[in-house]
Amino acid sequence: MRVAVRRESDAGSALRAWLDARKDERILNAHEAARLGQLLSVLSEEIQAAGDWADAAAAMLEATHWRTQSETSLGEEPLPSNGMGVGPRVRRASRAAFALLLEGESAADVVSWLEREIIFRRAAGLASRRAAIGWIRDERPPTLVPALLTVARDFDDPLRPDVLDLLVRWEDEAVDLFLVRLVGRPFNRRDARHPYTLLLSRVRNGGTPLGERATEQLAGRLRVMLLSQDWRSAARAVALAGRLKSGVGVPLLLDALHVWDRRKAEGRGSRRILYELSDELGRISGRTGMGRDPRAWSTWWVAVQQGRTELHASGESRGEPRSSAAFFGLHPRSDQVTFIIDRSGSMSTEWGTTGHDRYTEAVEQMTRFLQASGPATRFNVILFSDSVERSSVELVPATAKNLSRARHSLLARGPNGGTSLRPAVNMALGLGSGNELDFDQVMADTVVVLCDGQTGSGPGWVAPLIEEVGEATQVVFECVLIGSNGDGTLKALAQQTGGEYLRVDG
Hints:
The protein has about 500 residues and is α/β, with parallel strands linked by helices.
C-alpha cells in the first residue's frame, strides 16, 4: 500500500509522526520496515519533483540521525537475538535514501538547500547541521566556502568544531588563508583543537600544497614563532615549517637552528628545540646523523642549491643518540625536566641485589642523570602516592648543591601509600582544581614519569586530557615502567605526546 501525498509537506509530516510513534520501541517488525521504505520513497519522489520540497528534505535529514530514547551510543550494533534495533534500521535506510538524492539530478539543489537552510541556520538544530556537514564532506561545493568560514569565525556557534574539522580537508585558497591567520592566536579552551593542529593537519594530509599567498603569509608567521623566546611557539613552528616547500621551509629551519644554538651557548636556549630542528632537517634530507651543528646543515643546504647533492638522500642515517645521559635507559632530550616519581608502598620492593629498594634506585638514577646533564639543566620533582608533593614550582639548576639537597630530601621520605598518578600529571601540566590551565605552573618542556604498577585511575583519562591541553602545553612525557604490572597509562602518556616508553625489570 502506497502512502498518499496530498500536499508537499504531507510526506514529511507522515515520516515524523511515524518516527515519533516508535521512539520507545526496540525492534522494527517486517510490516513497519516496509512502511518506512514507502515513506522514504515518497519523500525522495517529492524532493526530486517541482515545488516546495524543503520540509520533505528536512524530515529525511532528521531521520538520518534519529535515535530512540533507549539508545546510548551512535553505533549500528545489532541486538543479540532479535536483529537490528529500530534506531539503526531507520538511520541506515534514511542514509541510503539521502545518498541517492545526492547522486541524482537534484543533487545540486539538495546541496544548495543544505547550505542555505541547514548549515548556516542555528534554528535547524545542531544534530541536523552536523548531519548536513557529513553529507557535503565529500561533495565540497565551492559555493559553500563563505558559509563555512562564517561559522568557523563564530566562536559561539556549536557547529564550529565540526566545520573546522571539515575545512582542514577542503584545500581552497580562502580556507588556507583562514587557517594561516589562526596560527599564533591565543588558544581558546572552548575549541576542541588548537589552531596549530588545524593547519598542521592541512599541510600533512592535503593532496595539494598551500597556495602561494597562504605560503607567503605562513612563512612570515613561522619566522616570528621559530625565533621567539617561547619554546612552545618554536616547537609548533618547527613541524609546520618542515611541511612547506623546501625552498621556503629549510631556510626558516636553518635560521632558527643558528639562533637556538647561539642561545644555548649563552645559557638561555632549549635543548629540546635544537633536537627538534635537527630532526626536521634530518627528515627532509634523509641525513639524520648530522647532529645539531648549524654549520654542517648550512653547508649541506648550499650544496643542495648548487646542485652538488640531492635534497633527500635515503640510507645516510647514522642513528644519532637521543642524549648521552640516561634514566633507566631513557635518554630525555631536554634541559628543562620535571620528574614524576612513584613513592607508593610497592616501591619498597628490593631492587635486584643492590641492597636497596626501587624507590631509592629511582632517586639515585635521577641524580646521576642530572649530574651527567650538567648544571645548565634545570629540574624539579613531583612525588606521588595517595597524595602529591612537589619540590618547587620553579625549576632549579642541576648544581651539585641542589642535587645533594634534592637527593637527601627525597630519600628521607620513603615509599608508602597508593598509586594516584593522575593528580601528579595534572600538577605537571599546570591544571588546577577546576581544571583551569596555568602556564605559570608549567616550567618544564619534558616530564619523566616512573611508576611500578597499575595506577589508581587506569589509562582511560590520558587521551581526553592530552587532546584537551596537550597542544597548548606542548609537554612531552617520557615514561618508565618497573616490572610487568602496568595498566597502559604510562605507554599512553608517551604515545599521546611523542615521548619514549620503556619497561624495565627490577
